[in-house]
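ok trying again, last paste got cut off:
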Amino acid sequence: MTFDLSHAPHHSAHHNAEWWRSAVIYQVYPRSFADSNGDGIGDLPGITSRLDALASLGIDAVWLSPFMRSPQKDAGYDVSDYTDVDPLFGTLADFDAMVTRAHELKLRVLIDLVPNHTSDKHQWFQDALNEIEGSAEREFYHFKDGRGENGELPPNNWLSLFGGPAWTRITNADGTPGQWYLHLFDSSQPDLNWANPKVQEAFEDILRFWLDRGVDGFRVDQPHAMAKAAGLPDHPDLERAGAGFIEGEASPPMWFQEEVHPIFRKWRQILDSYPGDRAMCGEAYVLPLSFMAKWVRHDEFNQTFNFRFLNSNWDAKTLFDNINESFEAFDGVGAPSTWVLNNHDVLRHASRFGGLKVKPTDSDGVGPGDPQPDRELGLRRARGATLMMLALPGSSYLYQGEELGLPEHTTLAPEFRQDPTFFRTNGKRVGRDGCRVPLPWESGVGAANGFNSTGKAWLPQPEIYAAYSRDQQEGVAGSTLELYKHALKLRRDLKLGEGSFEWASDFVGENSLGFRNGEILVVHNFGHTPIELPAGEIIASSIEGMTNGHPLVADQTVWIKA
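nice, full thing came through this time. structure:
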C-alpha cells in the first residue's frame, strides 16, 4: 500500500476574522432535539431551553434543519411557506426569541433553506394546478406533456432519489389526465423551475426575510439539483447511474448544471450586504472535490460539505487520500475545507464504524433484520475519528447526539418508520429514521429520557439510550460528552481551526496516520499493534487514562504537545 508524501499538501495557518473559516457548527434537528410542550415533537422553545447546554459544549454556531411551515411529508424538507414557522415547532416570535438567546450566548444561527423543490401544498403549486397549460403559474415548476400516443408515458426517463419515477401525472378539473410534473425526490416535492426569473426573485426575498430577522446564514439543501439541462433530455446512462451520477463522467441533465452559479453569486451579494459575516454552506454533493471547489469561489458559497471525508471508509489509506484531496481542492480557491462525520441523512458514525459494510451517504439505513454493529468497537472508533477530525484546520460540523456517542437506532420496527424512502421502496431501503430519533437528556425522565416530560416521541428511543443520556455523562471523566468538551476547548484555545497541516511521516502508513497542526502532533492507530509515541505532553486522548510514555493502542487518537 503506497502513501506518497512527495506531493502531499502543506496547508498554512490562516488567521482570519471570518468566523466561518474555523467554526464548529452544531446541527440541530428540531423535531428530535427538545420538546417543550410534550406532544412528542421537538420545537423552537425546546431548543431555546437547551441553548445553554450547547454553549457549554464549546461550539460556535447552530444550524437548524427545517422548521418552516410544511405538511411534513419529508420531515420539513417539503416547505409550504418559506416565511413562516410550522405550528409543530412554534411561532415566528418563538424563533425570534431563540435567535436572541443564541446571540446572547455568542452562538450564531444558521437555518436550512430548501430551494430545489417546494411542498405540493405550497400556494405556488396549488396555483399552478388551478391554471392552464403554459400559464405563468405553471412556469414556476416543470410541467410537461407526456410521451406516448396519449401522453401516458413520463416526459423523460429520470428517476426519483427516493425510488420510482421522477414524474407524476396530474388529473385535470374535468377528470381527464393532464400534464406531468417533475420531482427528483418525493411526489409531494415538485421541483421548481430555476430558469424562471420570478422564482429567483422570490427566493431573494426569502433570503432577506430571514436575514432581517437576524440569522447568520444558511445551509442550502441540494443546490446542485436546482438547474436542469434545457429541454429536460433523458438521462444518458440510467442503467449504470440510476437516479444519480458517475464520478468523473459528464454531468447528467439534472445535476451540476452551470446555470446555478449566477444564482449563488447573487445570493452571496445579498448576504455580503448585511453586517456580521453572514455565511452560506451548500449541501453540494459534487465529486470529485476539484469540481466542488468551483462552488466555493470567492463570490459564491462560503463553504460546502466535504462529502468525500464523510463517506470515507475507516482505513488509513482512504483517509490519507481524501484529506490530501480536500486540502488541494479547497486551498486552490482560498476556501476552508469542512469536516463532518454525521448528519440527519447518514448512519451515525458510532454505529457505522462498528464493523458495518455500508456507505454512510447511501441513506439506506440498518433495520432489525440486518447485521448489527458492534457498539463497543463503533464508539471507540467514533471517539478516535472525532478527535482526529477536530484537530484538522478548517470548519467542523457536528450532528446532535454525537457528543453523547449515540448509536444508530438499528432495531426500529417498521410500524414506526416515517422516512419516505422506506415507503417509496416498499421497505427495501430502510431509510434515515434511525439517526433522527429524539435525544436523551435525563435518564429515566419519562419514556423519552427527558426529551420531554410526557414520554411521547415521534420516533421511539431504543432502551439503550438511557445510558447515553446527557445527565449520565455531564462531569463524568472519560465520558464521550466530556471528551467533546475537552477537545473543543483545546481546539479553540490553540486555534487549531485556523492552524496549519502537514503529515508526520513517521506515522503515515497502513496502520497509522499522523499529522501536525502547529506544535500539536495528532496520531491515530488503525492497526492492532501498539505504537510507541515520541516525547511530549499528551493533552487529549480518545481513550481515557492515557498518560505520557504509554503506547498508542488500536483505534486510539492522541494529541501531543511538543
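cool. The mean pLDDT is 95. The longest strand covers residues 108-113.
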